[in-house]
Design goal:
The chain is an all-alpha fold and 301 residues long. Helices cover 77% and strands 0% of the residues. The protein has a domain of 146 residues: Tetratricopeptide repeat domain (Serine Threonine Protein Phosphatase 5, Tetratricopeptide repeat).
Length: 301
């Protein structure tokens, strides 16, 4: 069988988290700078520019502990500095200290209950701890504050997917498509959900729309290939896996999936070729599939 839904969703979610604009370091720096200037204009704290600039310098060098030390001092100086708590929470998130991050985001919310970013950040930390219900609650609160932010509908939809609440997930992805029809991710994640519901035609339709918007997304080709595979349309599946590999020749999962499709077509030599390439790239082939391939092909490798 091809790469399963749960593993492909997990990989997709990891990629999404790592690329969200307010989590990667350069975006955090932009966020800090913009927040600092806003805070100065509002005269909420005289020392905001000084400590934020110093924190930015530390973060640019990856010196997270030094950044936390400066933020500790800022909070000691002004225990109601919501920005400092929010920033420190993000630094703790980057360090993988999710309980500390949650504590700081909660303090931010206590001081400023209308800070949507604090709910978003806390939701991410909850997700890292596997607490999807808490994450959904925070994304919902963030959406009450800013109902047009599609990223939060996507993130909440993914959390619903992981809870197997597929209709709720589809509702969130529908909202993304409604707000921004040119956002390929709304179609892609809705396609993933339809595929899990075994509604393969709807999944293929959504994947196709996503590819019209972003034809270089190799993961969507692979996902559509899986949907075609489950419909027994092996040639179309192979074509999509091949497209994925043309865009990303190091996609070990696409080699494995294409190898499975060739196996299903009884083209065992081609299947072995792809399985070997997947293995060379580090993919762990399920032993039961290798047993079936050996028996069907009369080969050991």
């Amino acid at each position: 069988m091809p790469v399963g839904w749960s593993s492909s969703l997990s990989d997709t979610m990891k990629n999404r988290v790592n690329n969200q604009i307010w989590i990667i370091l350069p975006a955090i720096l932009f966020f800090l700078s913009s927040c600092a200037s806003t805070q100065q204009r509002q005269s909420e704290q005289r020392g905001a520019k000084l400590y934020v600039n110093q924190v930015i310098a530390y973060l640019e060098k990856g010196e997270f502990d030094q950044a936390i030390s400066d933020l500790d001092k800022a909070i000691e100086s002004n225990p109601r500095d919501a920005l400092a708590y929010n920033i420190r929470g993000m630094v703790y998130w980057k360090k993988g200290q999710f309980d500390q991050a949650i504590s700081d985001f909660s303090k931010t919310i206590q001081i400023n209950p209308r800070d949507a970013s604090a709910y978003e950040h806390r939701a991410l930390a909850y997700k890292e701890k596997g607490q999807n219900d808490h994450a959904i609650s925070d994304y919902t609160k963030a959406l009450e504050i800013n109902p047009k932010k599609t990223e939060n509908y996507i993130s909440r939809g993914i959390a619903y997917m992981e809870k197997m609440e597929f209709d709720k997930a589809i509702s969130d992805f529908n909202k993304v498509v409604e707000i921004n029809p040119s956002d390929a991710s709304g179609y892609r994640f809705r396609g993933l959900t339809y595929r899990q519901k075994r509604q393969y035609d709807q999944a293929i339709s959504d994947y196709t729309k996503a590819l019209e918007i972003n034809p270089k997304d190799y993961t969507t080709y692979s996902h559509r290939g899986i949907a075609y595979y489950h419909k027994g349309q092996y040639d179309q599946a192979i074509s999509d896996y091949t497209m994925a590999l043309e865009i990303n020749p190091n996609d070990d999962g696409a080699y494995y999936n294409r190898g499975v499709a060739y196996y299903s077509k009884e083209e065992y030599d081609k299947s072995w070729d792809d399985i070997k390439k997947a293995q060379d790239l580090g993919y762990k082939i399920p032993p039961e599939f290798l047993d079936r391939l050996r028996k069907a092909s009369g080969r050991q490798q």
